[in-house]
Amino acid sequence: MDDVHLEQAARIAGRLAGTYPLADGYHRRVLDETAPSMVGRAAAMVEEETGLTGGDVPKVAVIDRLTWVERNLAFFSALLSPVESSLENGLADAGLGDGLSGRLLAIEMGVLLGLLSHRVLGQYELVIPSAGSGDEICLPAPNILEFERRNQLRPDEFRFWVALHEATHRLQFVGVPWLRSYFLDLATGLLNVSKPDESRLAVLVSGIQRAGVEGFFSLGEAGIPGLMATPAELRRLDKVQALMSLLEGHGHVVMDRIGSRQLVTWRRMSGLLSQRRTNPRVAALLRLTGLEMKLRQYEEGRDFILHVERRAGWSAVDMAWESPDTLPTRSEIKAPESWLDRVG
Description:
The chain contains 16 helices and 3 strands. The protein is mainly alpha-helical. The termini are far apart. About 1% of the residues have low confidence.
């Protein structure tokens, strides 16, 4: 995506991101001051709970929505560039105009990031690399402050709950040395489409024509990458979704265990976070990248972790981190016994 289309996406996202009236008040200053020690405390508890080692305490950045958009825009643009190239060739052959793919992706990406900028409560930056990012946990202050106020949550407990979530994801990628490169290889390889599948391209072109190139058209669960991908690339997408189910399931089990001991309101907060994932509008937009995570996939990941632990103990859960070959597949996430049989 060129600079013009990046600016278009940023403008759209910025208008949708907006702000939160109380984002610059006293509570924001308190969050700025307490975030580093809060994340450090959460990281230590997660290490003790999981047995994984995270090394140094991560950096913490308290940011606004627009900053979150900017940090993610460059990464997703690079990730989708192979799709744009293949899409452009196909649309040009169909007589739908020059440069249409860039404009289409800019609109979709701008809307996606603009809406998600309201919902993200934290992000571990080593997984989604952007300019200047590293071993850093980002906390979007407007979203945290708005969510805790709207749901009348105790700020100290809710902020620590968010810190637990991000510290767990951080430890997964730092404590399992090969996991980050494996994840990024899967994600980038998924979208390195060298030759679009003609039948899938026909579906995409037909959808655009029906929509008049003015709105969103119907996409499958794999999104635009799925429409352009070969069967082999769809199998790669299956691996990405299996990994995301495992990471989220593991993360939520760890959060709940620590939260049940440390936080009076953990059960209510856990329920509120689950409810947020059922928003159909956001779920539809997530299909753009092919990385949609439905509520059932979070639940499947959690159920997988709990089943394996019941049957073989927590040490059996750790077998998933030994190598890419011991990661569960999507079918094994749904049938944990088959994974246990395979990995011994």
